[in-house]
Amino acid sequence: MKNWLTSLSRSIQFSMLFIFIWIISSIATLVFVDKDYPKLNLSDKLLSPFSSSISSDNFYLLGTDELGRDVLISLLEGATNALMIGLFSVLIAAILGIFIGSAAAYYGDNSLKINTLELIIKTISLATTLLFAVFIIPWTQFEFFSFWLHILFPFIIVILLFIIAKKIGQLSVLTKEITLPLDLIIGRIIEVFESLPTLFILVALSTLINGSWLSISIIIGLTSWPNIAKFTRAEFLKIKQTTFIEASQALGLSKSSIIIKHFLPNAISPVLVSLAFGVASAVIIESTLAFLGLGLNAESASWGNLLASARQNIEAWWLTLFPSLAIFLVIYSCSAIGEKLKI
Amino acid sequence: MAQFILRRLFYGFLVLYGVVTIVFLIFNLLPGDPARMMLGQRADQEAIEEINAELGFNESIFKQYVLYLNDLSPLSFHNKINLSNEELELKYGSSFSFETKNFFVLLKKPFLRLSYQKRKKVSSILLESLPETAILAVSSILIAIIIGVFFGLLSALYSDSWFDKLLLLVSTSGMALPSFFVGIIFAWLFGFVLSNYTGLNMTGSLYEVDDLGKGEFLQLKNLILPAITLGIRPLSVIIQLSRNSFLEVMQMDFTRTARAKGILFLPLILRHILRNALNPVVTAVSGMFASLMAGAVFVEIIFSWKGIGWEIVDALEKYDLPVIMGAVLIIAAIFVMINIVVDIIYGLLDPRVRYS
Q: I need a surface site. Which of A196, A297, B235, B326 has the fewest CB within 10 A?
């Protein structure tokens, strides 16, 4: 263990240390920081670092912003939000991207045969459920439990409709089968998502949501899966040509066990690289949205919010320095670790 | 080859269709009432209904979708009952048209509708701001290429020296910096703290209205800070790319032969090494350009540069949906077209691509 740590380069050790500090301080903030800690204190506005409060006995290690909020507390809460948004959005993007990318690579263009009637019913049911999900869900009232309810409900309906479609396809008179070029279709969908300018779409979508960290992670996750899907697909295509996959197919293993037991363990490390970069880019996107005043709602702190207030008070250097240092260190560490995983 | 190009164009068309559909869906999801935004708080019900009828908001969502597609497509059909000749001319401009019994059939430029707030064509608004963004993107990419290749060459020549290591650290950090953060630092440092020495402003656009209000004049010095800010990320990428590529070429046999023949240092670099080492840089730059056009938004906001990103955020504040939709569609269309051209060039160069 010790040997493994010392064999790493200085910058990787530093990055791992910083990520560790990031996680620990986020957890500590969640547990220890008092929710009733005085947020606004207009008599203490724009105090420089290492100064004590004028009206109370607080001591501001990193100074205060233009509303008298403690920069250190905002920084810590921003770290918590950035960590949660980074991890959760990457989780969503990873689930979508790995699933879609592996399906595209596994089936390719000419190995998925499907009954015509089944295909028609599945397409129609998927399209209507998606439309339902898009237009019926009250996106503006984005509560944690109602979210799961509203995501789960269309999901269950889709699965039920798919099972029905399969049964109808089996016993129907239309038994003609066609090959579905799944790789081609998924490739085009990924191309559509890549050519959309993601930030503009996020800026537009952020007017839809209520500004909780969960809703922001969802919109970031829903727009950043194509990258992970592409990585997974490329890696799966490489593995598909090896002999052990051929052997496991010849042995008659089921598709799911081939994908989970043989494809995924071999493809996971390049996918992990894209996940590490995904966390970095999610943190950038989060702070950018907050910088524009579109991300997290005003009560919850974010590094981007701090930077936006720094822009209003340009002579208060501590408002610019600390949040930008935090953003820089997070992104540097994530990409350094990603680069290390690549080799 | 013709079949390959046709197939690629067809896929490009499909992708554009998907982009239009997604953009339409997203922007119809947004809460808020454009009619009320246009008329203000005290609007009466009849006026709102009138506006809704004019914009087509009282139709079903599917009919709105079809109408939007009809407006965007170069070949469109219009019912004669709903549309007079003058309206046709006003909306779609001079276009080639012929009539059947019930329909006008038009061959036109894509119509991106009218802005809610400015009552102008979206295409003309975007045509004003697109060149500014293009100037910004082009100049930042030029800065990145010139400085990046120079530093890449230096750090390849003195590889593993302290200079090389410093440059590696700087360029790795340059890739990790979000552009809006570099923008704030630059604006603060060069536009505020040092502004007496540099003579630069914190914000400003390419054309400024002069103090007496006698029209606009060109202000080239406002380009410096945004272009450098936008160029930092490509600069870092180019430094590392060109360093590795230079190192590779310097170990090739022809470089050794040229040295053995006694060629001077400068001609060796210019004639033999530079030409061979620049290929990966050119590939990277062509890929970077499209993302720069979209990535310029934050730089534009920080420096108040009146380009397409500034226009979008401005439109978002005023809830001017056609402008945002049009801008997103134009950027996506540019991206798709660049992709098609790059694919066709690869296909021309490498026959294997055509059959995959």
A: A297
pLDDT surpasses 70 at A153: yes
Q: How far is the alpha carbon of A95 from chain B, nearest alpha carbon, in Å?
A: 21
pLDDT in tens, B225-278: 888 888 888 898 899 889 988 888 888 888 888 888 888 888 888 888 887 777
Angle at A268 between CA A263 and CA A270, to 5 degrees: 120
Going B239 to B244 to B245 to B251, the CA torsion angle's sign is positive
Q: Nearest CB to B26: which of A188, A204, A284? A: A204
User: What are A45-73's pLDDT values in tens digits?
Assistant: 766 777 776 666 677 777 777 777 778 88
Q: Which two tokens stand for residue B233?
A: 């990320």
Record: contact A292-B27, CB cut-off 8 A: no
Q: How far, rounded to the nearest angstrom, does the alpha carbon of residue B206 sit from its chain's CA centroid?
A: 17
Mean pLDDT of all residues in A320-342: 83
Residues of chain A with C-beta less than 8 angstroms from the C-beta of B339: 191, 195
> Could you write out the three-class secondary structure of chain A?
CHHHHHHCCHHHHHHHHHHHHHHHHHHHHHHHCCCCCCCCCHHHCCCCCCEECCCCCCEECCCECCCCCEHHHHHHHHHHHHHHHHHHHHHHHHHHHHHHHHHHHHHCCCCCEEEHHHHHHHHHHHHHHHHHHHHHCCCCCCCHHHHHHHHHHHHHHHHHHHHHHHHHHHHCCCCCEEECCHHHHHHHHHHHHHHCCHHHHHHHHCCCCCCCHHHHHHHHHHHHHHHHHHHHHHHHHHHHCCHHHHHHHHCCCCHHHHHHHHHHHHHHHHHHHHHHHHHHHHHHHHHHHHHCCCCCCCCCCCHHHHHHHHHHCCCCHHHHHHHHHHHHHHHHHHHHHHHHHHC
B342 touches A: beta carbon within 8 Å: no
Q: Which residues of B touch A284 (CB under 8 A)?
A: 178
- Chosen for mutation from B13, B15, B291, B319 (greatest number of chain A CBs closer than 10 Å) is B15
CATH number of A2-112+180-342: 1.10.3720.10
**ipTM value greater than 0.85:** no
Measured between beta carbons, the chain A residues lying within 8 angstroms of B326 are: none
Burial string for A50-79 (b: 16+ CB within 10 Å, else e) reads eeebeeeebebebbbbeebbbbbbbbbbbb
Could you give the count of Cα atoms lying within 13 Å of A150 in the half-sphere of its Cβ? 17
State the best of B9, B130, B181, B308 to mutate against chain A, taking most chain A CBs within 10 Å: B181
User: Is residue B312 a contact partner of residue B318, using CB atoms and an 8 Å limit?
Assistant: no
In chain B, what are the domain boundaries?
2-107, 122-354
Q: At residue A124, does pLDDT exceed 90?
A: no
> How far is A245 from A239, CA to CA, in rounded Å?
7
C-alpha span between A117 and B311 (Å, rounded):
48
Question: Under DSSP, is residue A326 helix (H, G, I), strand (E, B) or coil?
Answer: helix
What pLDDT sits at residue A36? 63
